[in-house]
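Trying the structure run again after the queue cleared.
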Amino acid sequence: MKKRILSLILALSMVLSVLPLGAFAADPPELVMGANGLPVYSEGTVGHNWVYMNGTLCLLYGTFDFSSTHPQNTSAGTQTAPPVACPIEIESDAEITGGIFEKAVTNNGGTIYDGTFNTMVENNVVSWGTLGKIVGGAFNGTVTNKGTISGGAFNGTVENNGIISDGTFKGGVINYKTISGGTFQNTYSVENHGTIEKGTFEGIVANNNTISGGIFQSTSNVTNDGTINGNGIFAGIVTNNRFISGGTFQSTSNVINANDGTISDGTFAGRVINNSLISGGAFQNGCSVTNYGTIKGNGTFNGEVSNNAATATIENGTFNGKVSNNQGGKITNGTFEQEVINNAGGEITNGTFEQEVINNDGGEISGGTFKGTVLNGNAIITGGTFAAGLSRNDGSVTGGAFNGKTGLTTKAHQVTVTNGSVSQVNGVDPRNADGTTGTAWDLYAYKGTTVIITADTEIFSLNGYPISGAYNSSYPYTNNKKIVKFTMPYNENVVLSTGELVMAGGYPIGSNNGANNYNGKGWAYSAGNLSDPTDTGTLHLWSGTFDFNFADPTTKITRTDSAVACEIQSYATIIGGIFAGSVKNGYTIENGTFTNKVENSGYINNGTFAGNVTNSGAVNGGVFNSNATLINVTGGHNITWDAAYSNAKIEKVNGVSADWAPCVVVTELTKTKEVIITADTEIFSLNHESIGDGNCKSSYGSDKTVVKFTMPDGPVVLNGAITCTDLVMKDGWPEDSNGGTIPCSGTGWSYDHITKTLTLTSGEYDFSSTEPVQCAIQSSATITGGTFEKKVTNNAGGTISGGTFQETCSVTNNGTIKKGTFKDACSVTNEGTNATIENGTFKNMCRVINNSTIENGTFKNMCSVENNGTINNGTFTYKVENNGIITGGVFNGNAKPIGVTGGHNITVASNAKIEKVNGVSADWAPYVVTSNATTREVTITADTEIFSLNGQPIAESSYGSDKTTVTFTMPDKDVVLNEKINYGDLVMENGWPKDSNGGKTPCKGDGWEYIPNDPTNGDMLLLTGSNQTGGLYDFSTIGDGSAVECNVFVGKPTAITGGEFNGKVFNNSGILGGTFHGEVDNMGPGRIVNGTFKNSVENNGMIENGAFHDEVKNNGTINDGTFHGKVENNSVINSGTFNGKVDNTTMGRIEDGMFNDAVENNGTIEKGTFNDAVKNNSTINDGTFHGAVENNSAINGGTFNGAVTGSGTVSKNITGSGTLNGEPITKPEPEPEPEPEPTPKPEPKPEPKPEPEPEPTPEPNPEPQPEPTTYTVTVIGGTIDGKTSVSAKEKDTLTVVLDQNDIPDGMTFDLWSISSSKLSGDINVDYRAEAMTFQMPAEDVTIRAQYRSAEIIEDAAPSPLATAATVAVGGAAAGIVVWQGVNLGVDLYLANALPQGVPVPTDRRALALLLWETAGKPEVALPTLYGDIPAEEIELQKATRWAVQNGLMDAADKKDASFFDPDHYVTKMDVFVSKRKNSVASGKKHGILKEIEQSEGAVPCWKKHSTTFTQNSSCISIRTCFSALPPARRP
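Done. Tokens:
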């Protein structure tokens, strides 16, 4: 190529040399390409920065865009130039930015930015080092790159001897230098002989050099015959024949490490098959490794590893996943954190195994540390350390160290540490089967197994041999005697001694039962002469403290009864034990039993010495035998028998048998003075006093031949005569009476063994600490306790204040019985002048004969009483036969007492039972005598809660542990419990009548009654009318205002005006307001005037208004209201807003209303506005329909603005903008087409205009005559022509007729009320007539029948009140006025109560100001201003704050008191209630009500109560009240 360039330059020089000088006068031409793809110039042309010669176009400098015919000036040429048809050479200062090239392109240091190259491209480096650059373009032929490629799309083969940093390659790539970027999409291979640093590879890659980066996708399979390191990411198959020392191999990547491959590092998430060597790397969870080669080094394996075939070896590594060792695989080391399965042919020789190892059939374990359990199948274990032992063994175990004996054969022998434990074996802590760390090894090992033991204490010997050679034992660490290494012997257990003395059979363990010398910590044993049976050997105690009551005298863990058989030479301290051999004491004996001779040169502070004692030291305490030889043992006191027992013998002292004559040394240094004597006869006294704690702390042992006591500072005489003072009982007899056989006495008592009688003359006696008293008692003292089975006589002055007197006991009382239990067949006779039973329990079949006085007591079960004296009080459940006087007490009527009179009964209402009286159970019918009772207090326990006593509530303080028990003072009359409580006004608390005990107790009051647990209606509150509120109940103000939890029945003539209700409400009268969360049953006479209903409502009466949020079933009349749920109409809908679906059944009639959801009509629609779809299966007579109507029956009239479809009949009279079966209902009139206005022409000169032709006048269409307007009459409580809703034109004459079936019970017709002001003042209309005739006004009219009490006598003529009432109809006020017959007349009240000329307020702003101004504008503190009232309106701020603080009005939101909502609408009823509250609070009455109360002869029909006025029961109606006014003020 260089030669070609030189030849072109030489030719160019020759051309230039032959040109005439004139040729240089013109500028060289710019390059222009012809239609044939060649320059338009002839060969040899030298252009501006280009040369065309020998068929080759050489670009020397500048930018060339061959997509134009003018590559150097594209604006001058055509933009669709033909492909270049000649070869191109690009020099270092030239660049191509576009075009199509059909011939070879050679880039000699230039730049290719774009273009399409359909044949070979050479991207070269010129000799002076300038690199050819390919930045972009499409290359469809072969590209040889020696420069740089930083972009472009390459569809052919690329041979790279330079640098590829970017681009898209779809053909094969052979890389000899560097790939640092790009996307290699071809399915052909990338052959790398250089370095791949970066890039994305989608096809096959053959690496013969280095891959240090790049992304190799799942479609890219890599064969590595070089090195993979760095940060490459591999998602496809990688076959490694050389080295992998880095990279990330994803879960989709399978890595095959071939025979000569080595993996030393990298991250692997997919499968790895190793046929060669893995020496490192991170193999993640999910990466399974199958090993046929070698794994060693520091690799980490988090997934499963299968070690397969005889060539497979795991030499090291950390394995956090499951490992299977199969088919001859070997594990020679490594750390294994999860389960390992060693299968047939597998061998484990070493390693650390943290979890369970399963050694399956044919597997072998010869070494290793196993911290989890090992399950050995039909396999072999020949060695290893097993910290958790075997879980099962079905194979062969011949070697190893195991924690626990499970699965081992008898050839495994135990290793123990005397007075210690094995804490580690071969450096491994013990493990439990659940994997937790154990406390110590239970070590078993097989012969020949070498183990290193770590104990929790120092070890001095192994099976009695020092640690220094036997069993190959040694200390691995010279200065640490807790660690010992040894080889397990053939057929014996191993005992490691800590050096502490341990005795067995009277000799130290390790001495071979005294035959061998042995030593330890602070002691040594010298064996005796085996041929001399008297030479038992000598145990030398050099230092420390030894208690031979234990097999381990220094650690004192295991007690023993074995005596020390060998001789003792002690320079230590002996604190206990039994010594059969002789003892030489050179230091201290604190205690012990010494049956042989003792030589003391030290100190003896205590002990029992049955043999000879030679003392050259000090004896400070101990029991010595005077019958033996005692040398220099002085200062002791003897223990001897009384002369009367001279033949008695002491057989044992402190449990030691000998021919005893005890001599006890007691000094200040004596450790214990306790002595235990065992004799051949019973011992009953010590130094002439009875055996007992008060006598030398003496007590008996297993029987009376054994006595333990504290040695006094003097001699002791056994069984001397007893001199006593206090009475001591034993086995039911005075202790000194020898079981009642001998007399004895003491202070205040004496016992006669002839009469078997114990006489008590003074003091107090509690016999509770002994067996039942077996002797009779004569007492003038006080008995406080005990059990008595014989006769007891309580003499005058004597007292029984406790004790149990059994059935075999009879009691004669001449003194006082204050307490005690007299049971079964025990008889009690209360006789003597001053004999008194003050209290006590007399039960079962006890018989009591009272000849004196019973002040109190409990006489229960079948205890009968015969009274010949006086009973002042007591509780008697059984028979009482009275022959004397009874002034008080509770008797059981069911036991039919004889002669008991003057009492009063206690009963319980309903079927409840009295279970206890005064805590005594019986089948009770209490009969209480109180004429002169010492106490009248009675405690009753029933089987149900007690809530009332003689109709009055029970005070909380009178209850016991619960409300089934009550204590009260018995009145002088019968008592009835749980009668209904009769209260006055209803007060609610926590949703229940206050006195109902949270709804559990029935109660009633003025016009109300509460019945709990009614079988039909549940918990029911009945409202029947009262003086409390004139029959009006606002449950938000009655009590605490909580939601009512029980069901409510609203009876006549009452009404609910407010509150919340969670139970069901049965309305037989009126609902004027409230929120109802439960169901509502509006019964036949019932009316709903207002309220919010959250649950379903069944209406059999009338709905005037309200908000209904759930289903409504209408069997009565709906006059108004808002209905959000489904409505099933089985009767009449006169008006209302219906936002849910309406089902107008075959019995239903819709007279009017607004319907915003679908309606299905199976009855009659007379009128209404329907904004959604209507399905008509019956009759539509009128109405406005904005939605689709499916007509399956008959439409007789109406306005339809939607589509009407269906097969039903349709009247021609219907109107509207909708369609009927696709055709417009109303045909639009054709509009005349407007005449086009003439276009004015320009008038250059004024010319006369021609007269316009007169246009023809269109014929006028005849105007249709307007139809007369019709209006609707709605009748409530009557009909017009048999209908409750009709249409009529103005001035039509109509007659409304009363419906007698609608008149409520107890009422009679009063008058008609009419909503139209045009009609209500018509003097020609008789509003009192049951058939009223009138002329239709020009507006819709609602006419209602009004009723009054049937008891009111009709006036002779219509009164002005009747006329006024017709104006007041509508809303909540009208509901009160008319429907109850107690016509209050809200409008009349407000007209008289408000100041002259002040209108009735219509919003909360005006109402607050009215109330405040009426009260005289009182000052009020303003802690905060209402946020929705301007701060400058200070009077309104004061008025609203004052009205809320005084309870006359509420804030807008009770939860957020910062808003008042001053513009909110208020009804006349709101004004009436607030005004009445203000009047009551200020003590003022206004207008008519004031005059009524002040008029002479006025009927007392209103009384003040709370914040409202309520009607008295004597008041019949307001009409009667008004009749009491002066004529001028009567309405």
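The mean pLDDT is 85. Worth checking whether this holds up in the mutant runs.
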